[in-house]
Amino acid sequence: PAWQQNFALFCFLITLSMDTGFFKAVSGFKFTSRKHRVSDDDAVDRINSYYAPVLIVIMSSIVMTKMYLLGDPVQCWIPPEFKPAWEQYAETYCWLKNTYFVPPNGSIPGDETVRQGEELKYYQWVPFVLAIQALMFHLPAVIWKLMNWQSGVQIKTLVGMAVNCVDDSQEKREDKIKKLAWYFRTAIEKKIRKQSGFFYNLKKVLIRYLLIGRAAYGRYLINVYIVIKLLYIANVVGQFFLLNGFLGTDYDFYGLGVLRDLWNNHDWRHSGHFPRVTLCDFNVRVIGNSHPRTLQCVLVVNLLNEKIFVFLWFMLLFVAVVTILDALFWLAWAFLPNRRFATLRRLLESAQSARRRTADAEPSHLYEHSAVDLEQFFNDYIDSDGAFLLRMIGKNAGEPVLKELLQRLWADYRAPLMNRAAAKGASSAYK
């Protein structure tokens, strides 16, 4: 039908527009080197917001192509007296009205309401539901981009500068690290605080309920990011319920149920899930009289639908597991300051140890520190959002770049302190 074809095209184009890199993903699937990968999230976020939607869009496109471009979506066994026009009418009617399943050895129910209760109401909508699922996967990423943009910190720019340091010569790398450290501090010190609008009010809610006892804007990014992680979890868990509700299955775990059926040689003829052969009732009016007809139809597309939804279920299971585990790690990192402090301290000391071996001419005070110095450095100079940005840089640009950046930030932090101490000592000596 024309309306369904137009609606299918509309949903398909909307889904493609959710990510400007779609065609690049299909051709190269974005398996690029770290040097050319710039992102404001981590790998698990990209699984949720990029790779999973791309796979779902591909599946939706395959089903849509099969249903609307390659052959008829349903083919029925037509009585010999039917003319070609009648055949086309009957098949179109059965496709729109829904067909119902009766086991091969079962009898057709005489009660019309019973037959209506057995109707398959999902197969026409498979590509559209898949498109909606793809958009649902991508939605948290859109929210994240809007919210981190409101903070005034261009995370993607910061990560891009860090990624550009990878594989450079030592001289160029040091110069880029200096610029990166300057940009990092500028971003931390000059966060934009908008005083009106929806996002400002949302920030106030986040501050009130998530940032208890801490500086309001010192934890804005990390707490928003944790909320986004929880949205990813809510999305993937909700998609399991969406899948079961859409398919009308009695399985609690659809993918495992289908595998169990296959293992027990219990195919669609017995289970009724994605049946290939169905029945369709309609009436033919001849000279004012209504003649009921029951046609046997073949839904070839259900062979494809079954494989797609089994794959989709296991893909959802994989995404759910990695997303929940990743969120637990982030929660521990975000709300256990000692863990975060220990991680950054280890990286800084490792960077300093390597630097001592290659930079003998540098002042020794750049490597000296006490527990109090480090605590002030991480809590006051870096703060929680700064630690979040450092972690994001490490996840995208690698640990070596992160270590060098930490060392440069430490040197920038220590230099004015030591200059003031030296000036104070000189003043005392003069007196």
Automatic annotation (TrEMBL):
GO terms for molecular function: gap junction channel activity. GO terms for biological process: monoatomic ion transmembrane transport. The chain crosses the membrane at residues 6-29, 50-70, 122-144, 220-242, 308-336. It is a multi-pass membrane protein. Belongs to the pannexin family. The keyword Transport applies. GO terms for cellular component: gap junction; plasma membrane. Its main location: membrane. It is found in: Cell membrane. The keyword Manganese does not apply. Keywords: Cell membrane, Ion channel, Ion transport, Membrane, Transmembrane, Transmembrane helix, Transport. Structural component of the gap junctions. The gene is inx. This is Innexin. It comes from Macrostomum lignano. PROSITE patterns: PANNEXIN. Pfam families: Innexin.
